[in-house]
Backbone:
């Protein structure tokens, strides 16, 4: 396989076209779309080679897997130029390329999944990553056993067979049980995990016979950078907070205004970025919409706040939590998603309290929302005589509000219906200082 790849590069014209694609820093779910875009463009323009300039400590397994799939399906020859390091998920991406070139003193390996505290991930995640590394290495003609030992320290690899020769790993830390394999440039070349050493990008081009080629340098575009920023669990949690605050504000005010617009926009960014990054599937969306439906049912049709409301809130939070995760989340990603969700919830609660406290002292609130005061209660005597009379609402009723009936300003409540300001109402009964009303029939006159 390696001989065939080298044959491809040996016949490349000295003058050609090269794509240079940096993969540096944290591998997140914004990177796959960037790599996929480059490869799609390469299918149309037909460059001689795509060189991935890699320097990363790793990141999300699901993001690296999508990048690996895109590289493996590329019709254009691919080269991994490991410029310093390709650790963890970066090793998987490097192994997906047809040729691996490393700088002096570079490293590749240590691909097990851990959290921020260095604790090993579950066997499910380790098994998945181990087989991904093994299958990718085998597809590119590299020793799959070494790739597996980069993920699982319980494996022992005393030797490998390369082109019919037995090569022992006595000098490789990690070849024995209890250590992960991480290879330096020299050892990676000796064990066929890399092809050659070059110390600069220009030297890489020269080794490929493309020293005079035109090089196009790629970088994530603005939309890909936005998605990478928004899909960070902490940023996503802030969007959740803003979305919840907007909805709370909207519920407490009549009509559809600024709160609803801001809340809807924040949630749209949250859901949209999750779909683009493939964090969210229709399953998570259906869970969220099911919870939202239960919450709306509780507010509109069921008095109080019972099982439907609690279940609705629970389903919404579960759906959002799932959207912060990928297909194979590591413990680190589970922890960040959990922290992000809690930030969103606490932020919404405290922000909602502050927002409502500020709102109830505003002129708008005093003008449109009934207040409980001595003036309100001073009309409690003699209200029974107003039963059957027609009045006009002074505020919107959701379902409580105020109305003018025969010159009396009353606290009123409907039987659950929403009434606009200025609607005609008929008093049905009186309890204490509050009148129960219904919309006046068309035949009634004020």
Residues:
């Amino acid at each position: 396989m390696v001989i065939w790849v080298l044959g491809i590069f040996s016949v490349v014209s000295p003058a050609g076209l090269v794509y240079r694609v940096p993969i540096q820093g944290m591998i997140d779910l914004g990177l796959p779309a960037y790599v996929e875009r480059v490869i799609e463009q390469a299918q149309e323009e037909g460059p001689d080679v795509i060189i991935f300039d890699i320097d990363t400590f790793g990141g999300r397994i699901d993001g690296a897997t999508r990048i690996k799939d895109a590289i493996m399906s590329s019709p254009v020859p691919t080269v991994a130029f490991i410029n310093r390091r390709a650790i963890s998920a970066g090793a998987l991406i490097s192994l997906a390329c047809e040729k691996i070139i490393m700088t002096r003193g570079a490293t590749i390996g240590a691909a097990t999944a851990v959290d921020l505290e260095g604790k090993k991930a579950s066997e499910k995640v380790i098994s998945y990553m181990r087989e991904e590394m093994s299958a990718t290495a085998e597809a590119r003609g590299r020793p799959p056993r070494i790739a597996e030992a980069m993920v699982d320290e319980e494996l022992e690899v005393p030797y490998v067979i390369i082109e019919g020769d037995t090569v022992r790993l006595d000098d490789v830390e990690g070849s024995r049980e209890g250590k992960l394999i991480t290879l330096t440039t020299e050892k990676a070349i000796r064990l066929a995990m890399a092809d050659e050493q070059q110390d600069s990008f220009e030297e890489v081009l020269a080794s490929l016979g493309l020293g005079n080629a035109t090089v196009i340098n790629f970088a994530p575009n603005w939309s890909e950078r936005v998605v990478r920023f928004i899909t960070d669990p902490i940023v996503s949690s802030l969007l959740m907070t803003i979305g919840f605050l907007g909805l709370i504000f909207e519920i407490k005010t009549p009509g559809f205004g600024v709160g609803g617009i801001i809340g809807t926009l924040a949630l749209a960014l949250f859901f949209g970025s999750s779909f683009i990054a493939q964090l969210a599937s229709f399953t998570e969306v259906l869970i969220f919409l099911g919870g939202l439906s239960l919450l709306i049912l509780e507010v509109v049709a069921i008095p109080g706040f019972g099982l439907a409301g609690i279940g609705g809130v629970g389903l919404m939070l579960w759906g959002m939590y799932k959207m912060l995760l990928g297909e194979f989340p590591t413990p680190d990603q589970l922890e960040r998603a959990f922290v992000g969700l809690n930030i969103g919830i606490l932020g919404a609660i405290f922000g909602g309290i502050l927002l409502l406290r500020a709102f109830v002292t505003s002129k708008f609130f005093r003008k449109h929302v009934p207040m409980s005061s001595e003036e309100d209660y001073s009309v409690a005597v003699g209200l029974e005589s107003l039963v059957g009379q027609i009045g006009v609402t002074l505020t919107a009723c959701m379902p409580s509000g105020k109305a003018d009936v025969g010159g009396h300003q009353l606290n009123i409540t409907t039987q659950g219906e929403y009434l606009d300001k200025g609607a005609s109402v008929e008093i049905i009964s009186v309890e204490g200082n509050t009148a129960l009303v219904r919309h006046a029939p068309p035949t009634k006159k004020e």
